[in-house]
Amino acid sequence: MSDLKLNSEFETPSRQDWETLVKAGLKGLDIDTLVQETDDGLAKGPLSTRADRPDALSFLPPTPSPLLAGRAWHICAPIRDADIAFANKQLLDDLKGGASALDITLGEGAINLRHSADLKRLLEGVHTELVPIRFTFSDVSASKIKEMTRLVLNLDELENCVVNLGLDPVSSSYASETLDEGLFLPISLQTDQLSLLCINAAIVHDAGGSEAQELSYMAASLAYYYRHYGPDIRLSVRLAANQDAHLGIAKIRAARRILNRIAESFGAQSNIPIHSISALRMMQTVDPWTNLLRIMTAGFGAIGGGAEYITLRPFTDADTQSPRNATPFGYRIARNMQIMMMEESHLAQVQDAAYGSYFHERMTEALAQTAWTEFQALESGGGIIEMLTSGIFQKSVQAAKANREAENKPILGVTLHPAENVRPAKFRENT
């Protein structure tokens, strides 16, 4: 084996050799039948070669994150159950079981903070100085966001904690609310441990948007915040991860290229962390057990793309009757998926493993360029707020959703290889 000479003893196959074999396997079908396209019309295959790789490549590793303690990324425990006692027990179980950060959803139907005591009860038993905490808001008014934000800022237990408040007035506008300038906090409040904003671009994906629309929304929001606050503002980005793991890798890498480019343009530091969350849009209610496959591949894409924080949803989250009442089993499986990928599969031991890959580099370049063009269109239209207020951006997202639904692609376990006599999933009872 030591004398094996790969370069001299094996012929280098040509594309023609590959096409000949493929055509034989297709038994008369055209080779173009293997070509698949993304929602943005970008060809995903069937073959990528050295000729497809962009001339200029960028090494796109994760940014340094606090309190990682040797981990490759933060495993975020999703905390959103309206029963604070249950939520507290669940987050403690998650932390003891391997999670390293908390992803807390505040709002109606989630954790509805009314008093500082509610937050104290939620975080009881947590060594907050060792656990980054990230907040996000769901189905809540601007006035309620301000009220709960004050409760968070006034809690002594969070004084020495790494906190992202998750404020995103742009997404409030996206949700058809009037942009409330009162949501903007003085920049003097931010510290090395407290960041104010999180651009929640994942809402675009779950509303039906394409990858380029999600990235262009992210870019336009970032430009808006830099103009409003200046280059010293600290923020993060939230992106959806779906079942197409390799496209997910390219999306996160394209996002990092765009973030770095915009930060450089404003004279800001290009160290914006990316928080990836498994997409709600891909989740199915028919045979929800197949969601385990989707969540796992979404997590693989988030890891391969280099997300610093990753939240995987419980597999029952698509159920319309009880979307937030997952059982402890659902939370445990979601957490253990990440632990298995981190500790058993040893993913992310190489930073930016997709660097140089023909397919991933080609898709990163194509997505970045497509999203940048859409970002420029948003800017030319008056900026993200104007495009949201006028409804133009929402209409483009709805058009993308309609196009996808018209394609009616097969769904594993639902319209493709459906199982019979599926065992129903369990939910935690409302309290």
Automatic annotation (TrEMBL):
GO terms for molecular function: cobalamin binding; methylmalonyl-CoA mutase activity. GO terms for biological process: propionate metabolic process, methylmalonyl pathway. InterPro entries: Cbl-dep_enz_cat (IPR016176), MeMalonylCoA_mutase_a/b_cat (IPR006099). Pfam families: MM_CoA_mutase (PF01642). This is Methylmalonyl-CoA mutase. Transmembrane segments: none annotated. SUPFAM superfamilies: Cobalamin (vitamin B12)-dependent enzymes (SSF51703). One of its GO terms (cellular component) is cytoplasm. It comes from the Bacteria. Residues 193-407 form the Methylmalonyl-CoA mutase alpha/beta chain catalytic domain. Coiled coil: none annotated.
